[in-house]
Records
---
Amino acid sequence: QITLKESGPTLVKPTQTLTLTCTFSGFSLSTSGVGVGWIRQPPGKALEWLALIYWNDDKRYSPSLKSRLTITKDTSKSQVVLTMTNMDPVDTATYYCAHKPGIAAAHNCFDPWGQGTLVTVSS
Amino acid sequence: SYELTQPPSVSVSPGQTAKITCSGDALSKQYTYWYQQKPGQAPVLVMYKDSERPSGIPERFSGSSSGTTVTLTISGVQAEDEADYYCQSADSSGTYFYVFGTGTKVSVL
């Protein structure tokens, strides 16, 4: 059974850097094709894909947020870390991490997801 | 930027059929995936590769694709199907970025 759980601060101040950790079990990020992605959802709004890291350390970022995002992995700890710089109140959202089952076009989805963590940006 | 467009809301009576559309330029080239999200919960994958149903998803959920529009159909809607539904796909190459639809609220009257 694959499970993921997000952790990090619930409140950050404007201009600060957000660091979120996704700790997972039931799969290994050393398995060929596997990836972990981050998605966020502002209150009452739609989902927004942020970033993705693959087993081979290949990384993908949202074009609109690329300059602010960094995704890394620690395979030995079964963790993926997302950092987002220069936080703003509009970045207030629930942040989810999710498993990506493979690199093929048939696997361009996220399943399952973590429970999410709400991050509020306010002074 | 690449966008996937969905109707904001769909209302349906129990036992009837709900159809949710998702439109995007690259959908003729890339598979579409659908997620169900109930209040306070994380999204759950209910359809992959346009029309494949993951294990555990009821048969009343089906998917289809035609050109740049894909459709999620819920036949014989039940009260428990009331939720937000999001489509998701990838850029035209399928390798650079991923995008979610605007979301559709399905209300069971």
Note: Chain B has no helices and nine strands.
---
Amino acid sequence: KNEVEQSPQNLTAQEGEFITINCSYSVGISALHWLQQHPGGGIVSLFMLSSGKKKHGRLIATINIQEKHSSLHITASHPRDSAVYICAVLAQGAQKLVFGQGTRLTINP
Amino acid sequence: NAGVTQTPKFQVLKTGQSMTLQCAQDMNHEYMSWYRQDPGMGLRLIHYSVGAGITDQGEVPNGYNVSRSTTEDFPLRLLSAAPSQTSVYFCASSYSPYSGQGNGYTFGSGTRLTVV
């Protein structure tokens, strides 16, 4: 079993829908990252979380440390949100990220 | 600020050739790292560095060499290229790998490497 599991692996939705991507992990962590990779290949860091909730525009990330679970939400989704979303965790005491396999999101107009 | 500059963007090598992928950042980040991304495998850590003069192996270090002589630069060397090293390579940096410090990771634009 991977240390970081994302679900779903693929998600297709219509423009305007509320999107949720989930990330579960099996180790104690000091931080969790959400990354976005566009079809062109570039990777952008969206959020770094160690507790609670963060919001940036239409993106919201939450983390439940006790349940070892994080979610990334997109409100009022738009075709430009189509990308691969990657969850990565930094285990306690570690200096390197462990990555999930990514969730490929497609938003149709 | 340029962020993380990664060169080249594309490269084709013959089996057995060597080459260096360049990575430079201008944000005074202590932590730098190299990843490879293969279809269905996600990102995997090759090598990382927590500061000038300090490097360590990641998940898939075989066939690769790194050095960190300055804070800004973290080149990745392929010693004798093999078809299994065909991949997309990303360099990333951050202020610190530890929680609560900095704003996460900044990634380079990637290098698509093909070994024939």
Note: DSSP finds no helices and eleven strands in chain B.
